Amino acid sequence: MRDWVLSTPSRTAPIPNPQSPIAPEDRAQLTFERLFGPEFGHGKTFDLPRLKAALHALGAPQLRLPPVIHIAGTNGKGSTIAFMRAIAEAAGLRVHAFTKPHLFALRERFLVAGDVASDDALIGAAERVASVSTELTQFDAQAAAALLLFSEAPAGVVLLETGMGGRDDSTNVIENAALTVITPIALDHQVELGPRLADIAAHKAGILKPAAPALVARQQDAAREIIEARAEAIGAPLLRQGVEWDAYAHAGRLVVQTETRVLDLPPPTLAGAHQIDNAGLACAAMLAWRDLPDEAFADGVAGARLQARLQPLTRGPLSAPIRATGGEVWVDGAHNAHGAQALARALHAMQRRRPAPTIAVVGMRARKDADSFIGAIAGAVNHVIGVPLSEAHVAPVMMTAICDLFGIESSAAPSFEAAMQNAAQFPAPRVLICGSFLLAAEALRVESG
Length: 449
What we know:
The chain is an alpha/beta fold and about 450 residues long. About 40% of the residues lie in helices and about 15% in strands. A hairpin with a 2-residue loop joins strand 9 and strand 10 (about 255-260).
């Protein structure tokens, strides 16, 4: 890549660090933490029988749901669900969805008949769950609360995203899914799921159900073989990208082709070539589930929205100084090597359209693999600025040390604001804020004023 030089500030980015504003109180999150403890680092065992017993005491809401589409995978789950939701709603269906993570408030994870659940509704559901068991993990309790809310409101479909893995995940209390979907599998959460891709794939494949079609994105061989073996063992029909269906860009449009139908659709609204695969997977899944009209797929693909997925910042105060120089700002929640690879491909494509110094502002949680993330994005950026997060994180100076190993110019900033001031000193830069949904949320909050 062309070398772009930043003369100041220095590598240590000595810029003042004003105190960031405190986010509004999240009443639902505080309630779940009070009743069940923290979502992470809780010390409780993962115990599906315990969750099933609690659900039985609540009247077995998991058995009183609209058709369930269960989604697992490492990356692309949120985008795929966003496309599926938009397609279903374009077809006139009401949608329940349980997803993670949230950006600003816990209630974002709970979509009930097309509307984000209120704090009051979530708090009420949490208290009902706590009345039968406070020994559940917080995510167990979230899943139970979602199932309660979904069982009590009419809808046409439930889109249910795993929290981590699949086989032992809290959402895997669903016994009769209409469909399962597996997005691309890559290395992440190795401490919990195992060190090898095959170990992780075995967890993800645990959501497959006998006789329920399984829509599978294109996979690395080690993951694909595990999924195929599990499907054969339990009798789950497989619909694999590149075999029984495919999706690709052609003449500026998205083409989705199955063995019985071809869709010629507008390009996805979400940016990046990887969204062709995510939108294609969503379309293939909905085709496998129901005979929906072509217009629903076209409107859904063109109308899906999801924050912090290669999202351009175009109107607010955060991006204004950089836009004033002719630059651009993007934000993405990618936090593992596979996600970083997708970002690198997108950045290369942007560079072909407009050559510019590419600056990655990166903040990562302590439990994430910063080495592999930075290594995956290294060839697509000119400079990395490491920033701290409000929770346990990889120290910015550690990021600069990692960048040194990959031969990337870098600096450590004492705050996100300082990092953006640093980035604005490049000529008409392309700035990508990434590494954590926590950092993405902070960027979107500042941009909104």
